[in-house]
Amino acid sequence: MAELRVNPTKMELKKLQLRYNTARRGHKLLKDKRDELMRQFIEVVREYKLLRTRVEEAFGGVYESFSAAEALTGSKMLQEALILPKKEGTLHVDYRDIMSVTVPVFNFDLMGENGAESYNYGFAFTSGELDSSLAKLSGVLKDMVMLAQYEKTAQMLAEEIERTRRRVNALEYIMMPRYLEAIRRIKTKLEENERGNITRLMKVKDIMLEKRYGQTSEQG
Q1: 86: DSSP letter
Q2: For 115-155, what is each residue's pLDDT tens digit?
Q3: Higher pLDDT, 128 or 93
Q4: Which long-range contacts (C-beta less than 8 Å, at least 24 apart) are formed by 194-201?
C-alpha cells in the first residue's frame, strides 16, 4: 500500500483527520446503500424466478396447443393463417428510482381490429386448437414483458452493487488505512519534535543557570 506524502505539521494533521472522518462517514453510508441494494436485488430475483416459472409453464401449454393445431391443419396452412398479424402491441417505458438506480417499468398494451379476441385468419380451414394456442400466447405476453422488466432491473442492480462494493472496499482497505497511517506518522514526528524542543529548552536553561551562578561565584 503506497504511503501518503505529507508534511508533519499540525495543520496537515487536522486536514488528514477531517478527511479520515469524512471517509469513515462515506464508508458507512455506502455500506448501508450496498445492504439495501442487496435486499432489493434479492426481492427482484425472487419475483423474477416465480414469474419465469409461470411463463415457462404457460409456454409449455402454448407449444402443446400449437403442436396439436399443426397436426390437425398442417404446417403450411398454419403458416398461411399466421403470416399477416391483425394485432399490434405498444410498449410504454417509464422509470423509477431504487437507491439512486433508475430502472425501467414496462407497460404493454395489445390492440386489434375487432377487440382482444380478433384473429387474422378465417375459421373454415383452421381448428379450435389454433384459437386456443393464440389465446394462451396472448395471455402470456404481459408476463413476458414483466419478465424482461425484472431481468433488466436485476442486471442494473447487480452492476450498482458491484460498483458500490468496490467503493466500500477502496475506502475500507486503501484510503482509510492510508489516512490512519499518515496521521500516526505525523503524530509520531510531532511528538519527536516536541521532545527535541523540551530537550533543547532544558539545555538552554542549564547553560543560563550555569552562566548565572558562574558569574555570581566570580563576583563573590
Answers
A1: -
A2: 445 555 545 455 566 667 777 777 788 889 999 999 999 99
A3: 93
A4: none
Distinct helix (H) and strand (E) counts, the chain: 4, 2
Q: Give the number of other CB atoms < 10 A from CB of residue 79.
A: 11
Average pLDDT of the chain, as a whole number: 82
| Alpha-carbon dihedral 44, 94, 136, 85, rounded to 10 degrees | -150
Question: What region, left, alpha or beta, does residue 98 occupy, with left being phi > 0 and alpha being psi -120 to 50 degrees?
Answer: beta
DSSP secondary structure letters along 113-150: TTSTT--SS-SSSS-HHHHHHHHHHHHHHHHHHHHHHH
Report the interhelical angle of 10-73 vs 176-219 (nearest 10°): 180
The reported pTM is 0.73
At 98-112, the pLDDT tens digits run 988 999 999 888 765
Pull the grid cell for residue 213.
551562578
